[in-house]
User: Fold this.
Amino acid sequence: MKKKLSIGLGAIFFVLLILVFALHLLGFQLFNVTDDSMEPELKQHSLVIVQTKPAEHIHTGELMTYYDKESQRIVTHTVVSRDETGETFYVKSHAATTASTTPINRRYVLGQPFLTLPRLGTVGVVIDHHLVSLIFFSLLLVLWLFIFYSVQFGTSPNSWEKF
Assistant:
């Protein structure tokens, strides 16, 4: 029973790694909501999957994920206005009563939230930031389990030729 559980958990973890890798290939990024400024829409410690999107496709009233130079972190807020050239955004969090006076240049725009998964932010970001290492170590683990299984049950490479 214990062996089946560990194999099942390993399989789930491996599928998650493949899913994160596929999301990256499709232009998505993973972020953790670190504060409660956007609650109830984005709860703290949620995983936000952000779809890369050009700034010209983001409009007033929509959520926008961007790099905030002042705090040096990734932030998601609601767009409240744009300048006439479309180069600058003004945003507001749900917790704030007024819009931020700090302009956000379009070059700092990362995209828009596509999906939010409550309470999975920290796990998702760890997987996202260490994706290559996790895939490498997962493959090593699969190889180790394969060898262990072969030794444990007395199978050898010669018996594999039948398949």
Observations:
- Strands lie at 28-32, 47-52, 63-68, 73-82, 88-92, 104-105, 109-117.
